[in-house]
TrEMBL record:
This is Glycosyltransferase family 92 protein. Coiled coil: none annotated. Belongs to the glycosyltransferase 92 family. It is a single-pass membrane protein. The keyword Transmembrane applies. Keywords: Glycosyltransferase, Membrane, Transferase, Transmembrane, Transmembrane helix. The keyword Signal does not apply. It comes from Eutrema salsugineum (Saltwater cress). It comes from the Eukaryota. GO terms for cellular component: Golgi apparatus; membrane. Its EC number is 2.4.1.-.
Length: 579
């Protein structure tokens, strides 16, 4: 009986202990939930924030009321690696924004970055960044608004919610009008792209007036670095080609390269500032990995906010035989990378090269010619609104598939032909007022009667060492000529004057170096402009009927007969409608 009573007491004590443990666990869970709810409210905009203001009522900087948030952010970044340290390597001042180059990679479209400006009276202002992007294999870029009045352009970066750090020293800001901005190794030479030396359009310069300066290391501001200088061997417009120092061939290192100008009296000016950095080892390894087999036909273009039109252009020209695509993205903000990723998932060979430099289309094409030389026999340089078409093939019932690659391959073994030129027909809005759902090739069918200008497909290895080009064609080596195709064989349909909502984007900025922006009251008679529009993006009442002299449905008929689904009638680039 005694043992029974003791056992009963033990059971009661065990139940009480279990209940106490359960209550403790319950209270702990409730406390943790309350803590995280508190953190959520503190990290949101639901609480008031402190303002750091100057005496002159400058715009205020919003910072968290409790520093615990910054600590939590820092701990999160340290443990999860999602937010690497922000190391601003260079700053470039453009007319309408500041470009910050980071020495490390951050994710494209990172939205938690703010640009921090420092005032003359030590006041601080934070503004959201305009955009972020990956720059190359090692670096990133961030675009910031221009500094307000009385604030320095030496902008810093931080993550939203971090406490503002006091600026330690004023960092150098490069003026876009005078800076070396890109460089690429080409065999035993390096090609440097630079603003501020010469603006002689469409002419080569005497290379004896230029030298290249190589600084070993990452930072331009480091004074205790090895400096090498070599002579230029070619120069034109914004391009200077110099001999690559022998030591960098034997021991590739990361270096910056700039250009020195020498006047006719032999006096050298200081090297221009430069953000042009090359990882020598990476560049050499890439060249060594090149296979001996080249694509027969590649295409290079420079664009801004053309993602909605990219799929039709690539799918159609791939059908004509284009195998490789180089997309130079000039500050797009329309999710073009997502479109490129989607195309690559469907086995289209497309690469995006971030090109943040405004009004440098000629330089960008020169840069692309160097990149493509080891991969491609022929490279076409034309825009996303330009489509090759073979009238004779269509009218005679000949197959047009791979017609473009077959055409250029006929001249691959001809060392005397370095360029194939094709005339362009400019199409108007064709009576439309909204973007055609089936694409430009089907929607726009009325054009001007006479062709204007031409587009080129070139042999990169037969270009001059200066890489001189006028966007539409390159200068070829001595003794090498071009082939001009007659209109009945091939023509480029240039959908230049589309519906107004699409066309008006041309008023924002022209990408070519030597083409005046349409907002400026200069060269209003230029063929680059739309006749009679002036300098303001105001839609003329008769816009939908303009530039219509000949109704031409040749390419439309070809596309519908070869691409349209036999059941639904949809074209393959009408993805959204099919979904």
């Amino acid at each position: 009986m005694m043992e029974y009573e003791n056992g009963k007491k033990r059971k009661v004590r065990n139940r009480l202990q279990l209940k106490a443990q359960f209550m403790s666990l319950r209270y702990l869970t409730i406390c943790l939930c309350c803590f995280f709810v508190l953190l959520f409210f503190l990290s949101s905009d639901r609480i008031s924030t402190l303002s750091v203001r100057s005496d002159s009522l400058r715009p205020s900087l919003r910072v968290p009321a409790l520093s615990v948030l910054s600590s939590m952010d820092s701990i999160h970044r340290s443990f999860h690696g999602r937010f690497p340290p922000l190391r601003v390597e260079d700053r470039v001042q453009f007319p309408d924004h500041l470009l910050l180059i980071l020495s490390n990679r951050i994710g494209k479209g990172e939205k938690s970055l703010v640009c921090v400006y420092h005032g003359v009276k030590e006041e601080t202002l934070a503004l959201p960044s305009i955009s972020t992007d990956e720059f190359d294999e090692f670096r990133s870029i961030v675009r910031c608004p221009n500094a307000p009045s009385n604030y320095s352009s030496s902008v810093d970066l931080q993550f939203h919610g971090d406490l503002v750090k006091k600026k330690q020293k004023e960092s150098k800001v490069h003026n876009w009008a005078k800076v070396g901005y890109e460089a690429v190794i080409d065999g035993d030479t390096v090609v440097v792209f630079v603003k501020g030396l010469t603006r002689r359009p469409h002419k080569e310069s005497d290379p004896s007036y230029y030298k290249c300066q190589f600084k070993i290391g990452n930072s331009e501001e480091d004074e205790d670095v090895e400096v090498l200088v070599t002579q230029a061997v070619a120069a034109a417009q914004e391009v200077v080609r110099c001999v690559l120092p022998e030591s960098l061939k034997l021991n590739p290192e990361t270096f910056r390269v700039s250009v020195i100008h020498i006047d006719p009296r032999g006096r050298s000016t200081p090297a221009l500032p430069s953000v042009a950095r090359i990882n020598g080892l990476d560049s050499i390894e890439k060249m060594n990995k090149k296979s001996g087999i080249k694509h027969e036909l590649c295409v290079c273009t420079m664009l801004w906010n053309q993602a909605p039109f990219l799929r039709e252009w690539i799918m159609y020209h791939s059908w004509l035989g284009v195998e490789r695509w180089f997309i130079y993205d000039n500050n797009s903000d329309d999710d073009i990378q997502e479109e490129i990723d989607s195309l690559n998932s469907e086995s289209y060979n497309v690469s995006r090269h971030v090109w943040p430099w405004i009004k440098t289309q000629e330089a960008g094409f020169s840069h692309c010619a160097v990149r493509a030389k080891d991969e491609c026999n022929w490279v076409g340089f034309f825009d996303v609104d330009e489509f090759y078409y073979f009238p004779t093939h269509h009218s005679q019932g000949l197959p047009s598939k791979n017609a473009l690659s077959s055409l250029v391959s006929n001249y691959t073994s001809w060392d005397l032909v370095g360029e194939i030129r094709t005339e362009c027909h400019s199409y108007g809005p064709s009576g439309l007022t909204s973007v055609p759902s089936q694409g430009v090739t089907v929607g726009y069918t009325c054009r001007q009667a006479n062709p204007e200008r031409h587009k080129s497909i070139v042999r990169p290895e037969l270009l001059t060492s200066s890489l001189l080009n006028e966007v539409h064609h390159f200068q070829l080596r001595e003794g090498v000529g071009h082939m001009s195709l007659v209109e009945s064989v091939a023509v480029v349909n240039h959908y230049k004057y589309q519906v107004w909502d699409t066309f008006k984007a041309k008023f924002y900025r022209r990408v070519a170096t030597y083409v005046v922006d349409w907002q400026e009251n200069q060269n209003q008679g230029s063929k680059d402009r739309a006749p009679g529009l002036g300098t303001e993006a105001i839609e003329p009442p008769d816009w939908k009927r303009r530039f219509c002299e000949v109704w031409d449905t040749g390419l439309k008929d070809l596309v519908l007969s070869n691409f349209a689904d036999q059941v639904t009638g949809y074209l393959p680039w009408q993805r959204q409608q099919q979904e």
